[in-house]
Design a protein that fits this description.
The chain has helices at residues 4-14, 43-55, 65-85, 99-111, 132-135, 157-164, 186-195, 205-208, 215-218, 253-256, 271-293, 308-335, 367-376, 389-395, 414-434; strands spanning 24-25, 28-29, 31-32, 93-96, 119-123, 143-147, 170-174, 199-203, 222-226, 236-240, 341-344, 357-362, 379-380, 382-384, 403-407. With 435 residues, it is α/β, with parallel strands linked by helices. The strands form four sheets. The chain has a seven-stranded mixed sheet, with helices on both faces. Helix 3 (65-85) crosses helix 11 (271-293). The termini are far apart.
C-alpha cells in the first residue's frame, strides 16, 4: 500500500514545474480540466526548446557540427520514447506529426497487401483517429467490422470472439477511452487477435498520459502516441514491434522494418518539438526522483529490474496512476451528489478500471449551455463527442451524442476538484432558472 500523503506531496510539488498553471481568467485561477485533448508543459520543455533554437537549429545532410549534434539528439529522443512505452530500443520508434498521422501511415502500408474480401476489426469505443484510416480501405472491397460496446461502453468480448471467427488481418483498438476513461485489456485483445492470425494496431494516446505503458507485455504490433498529451510539444510517435517481425511474414512492410522504423519519418521532422519531448521525459525523471525523496519506491514493481532510463521515466507514470486514483475516487464521490447527473463509463465501484476522465450530462440542461457557463467561470471543460463519435452517440443519445468531459492528470488536485463542484453548484441554479 503506497503512502497517500507521499503521493500528494510528490504531485503537489510537480505543479511547481508548470508555469502555465498559475494563469487566471477574469481574475479567477484557471482549472485546466481538458487534459485529454492536450496537457500543459513543464519548464523542462520550455528550456529545451529555447536551448535548441540557440545551439542546435540545423538541418540534416550537412557536415556541420550542429547537424551531427542534432541528429544524435533525435536518436536519443527515440530512445527516451522507447523507455516511456517499454519498447526494446530506439529502432522501434519513429517521430511524426501526431498519432492520427501514424494511423494513416499504418493503414497505408499495411493496406498495400490487403485484398478485396479481407477483414479488419475496429471498435465502437475508439477515437476516429484509429477508425477512419481503416474505414477508407472499405472502398477497395475490404470488409471493416465494428466491434460493439455494451450499455456501459465496455467492449463486448463475446462479440469480439464472433468477429475473430472471420480471421481478420488487422484489429485496431484503443488502450483507453478518451471519452469515458475506461481502461481496455489490451493484452487480452492482442492475445485473442494473434490467435486468430491478426495484427494489432493500438491507440495508446489516452493511456500514456496516465499510466506506465508496456507495449511488450501487451504484445501489440503497432501503436501510436501523441506527445502533447504526455506533457510535451505538439507532435507524436509510432511504435513497431520489431522483436516479432515474423508476424509480418508476407507483408511488404516486413523488409522495410528489418533495420529500423525510421522510414515512417516522412520528410523533415519537428526538431524543436523533439527537443521539447526530451524535456518532457526529463520532467518525468525528476518526478520519480521527487517521489523517491518522499519515501515512495518502485522496488515491488516490474520497473525495479528494467534499464535505469525506463525505470526513471515510466516510474513517474506508475506513481501518477496511483495518485490519480485518489482524484478519481474523490471526483466520483462529489459527482454522485449532483442532482440529475448521468455518468458514462465505469462507476465508483469500478474506479480502478478507469482513468480520471469523466463524461457526463445533467438532466434538463443542454451540454453546451453547461460548458459555456463553466468556461465563463474559468473551468476549461470540453463538450461534444471528442471524436469518439460512435461511442458517445450510443451512450449519450438523449443528449444528441454530446456530454461534458472533465479530464484530469497528475498536476490536478483534490482542491481543484472541490473548487469545480463549488462552481458547478453555483451555475446550475442559474441555468435552471433561465431554462
Amino acid at each position: 500500500m503506497y503512502n497517500q500523503q507521499a503521493l500528494q506531496l510528490t504531485f503537489e510539488h510537480a505543479r511547481t514545474y508548470f508555469p502555465s498553471l498559475g494563469n487566471s481568467y477574469n481574475g479567477r485561477p484557471v482549472l485546466f480540466f481538458d487534459n485529454s485533448a492536450g496537457a500543459q508543459v513543464s519548464q523542462f520543455v520550455i528550456d529545451r526548446v529555447t536551448d535548441y533554437y540557440i545551439h542546435r537549429n540545423a538541418q540534416k545532410g550537412t557536415i556541420f557540427a550542429r547537424t551531427a549534434e542534432m541528429q544524435q539528439t533525435i536518436v536519443d529522443a527515440r530512445q527516451l520514447a522507447a523507455d516511456l512505452v517499454g519498447a526494446t530500443d530506439h529502432t522501434e520508434i519513429a517521430f511524426g506529426q501526431n498519432a492520427t498521422n501514424f494511423f494513416h501511415l499504418f493503414a497505408h502500408h499495411l493496406g498495400r497487401d490487403l485484398q478485396a474480401g479481407d477483414h479488419i476489426i475496429i471498435t465502437e469505443a475508439d477515437h476516429e483517429a484509429n477508425v477512419n484510416p481503416w474505414m477508407e480501405l472499405a472502398e477497395r472491397g475490404i470488409h471493416v467490422h465494428l466491434w460493439n460496446v455494451d450499455a456501459q461502453g465496455d467492449l463486448d468480448f463475446t462479440h469480439y470472439e464472433k468477429l475473430l471467427e472471420l480471421e481478420p488481418k488487422i484489429v485496431a483498438a484503443g488502450w483507453a477511452s478518451n471519452a469515458t476513461g475506461t481502461i481496455h485489456d489490451m493484452q487480452r485483445i492482442t492475445e485473442m487477435a494473434h490467435a486468430a492470425g491478426a495484427l494489432v494496431v493500438a491507440d495508446g494516446v489516452q493511456a500514456a498520459s496516465h499510466m506506465a505503458m508496456d507495449v511488450k507485455t501487451a504484445g501489440v504490433d503497432f501503436a501510436a502516441f501523441s506527445t502533447y498529451k504526455i506533457f510535451g510539444p505538439h507532435m507524436g510517435f509510432g511504435y513497431v514491434n520489431r522483436d516479432r517481425l515474423e508476424r509480418l511474414e508476407g507483408w511488404r512492410i516486413q523488409k522495410e522494418l528489418e533495420k529500423d522504423s525510421y522510414f515512417f519519418e516522412v520528410g523533415s521532422q519537428n526538431h524543436e518539438g523533439i527537443e521539447g519531448f526530451i524535456g518532457s521525459m526529463e520532467y518525468l525523471a525528476q518526478v520519480t526522483r521527487d517521489a523517491e525523496g518522499h519515501g515512495l519506491s518502485l522496488e515491488e514493481t516490474q520497473l525495479a529490474t528494467t534499464r535505469s532510463s525506463r525505470r526513471n521515466i515510466a516510474g513517474a507514470m506508475h506513481f501518477a496512476h496511483l495518485y490519480e486514483q485518489q482524484l478519481t475516487d474523490h471526483f466520483l464521490a462529489k459527482l454522485a451528489e449532483v442532482e440529475g447527473v448521468v455518468l458514462y463509463g465505469k462507476t465508483a465501484e469500478q474506479s480502478k478500471e478507469r482513468l480520471p476522465v469523466f463524461s457526463f450530462n445533467i438532466e434538463g440542461i443542454a451540454t453546451d449551455t453547461l460548458g459555456r457557463a463553466l468556461n465563463d467561470a474559468g473551468v476549461e471543460a470540453r463538450t461534444g463527442n471528442y471524436l469518439a463519435i460512435r461511442l458517445m452517440k450510443r451512450l449519450a443519445a438523449p443528449f444528441g451524442g454530446s456530454a461534458l468531459r472533465i479530464s484530469l492528470v497528475h498536476y490536478n488536485t483534490i482542491e481543484e476538484i472541490d473548487r469545480f463542484f463549488g462552481i458547478l453548484s453555483h451555475v446550475l441554479p442559474i441555468i435552471r432558472r433561465k431554462a
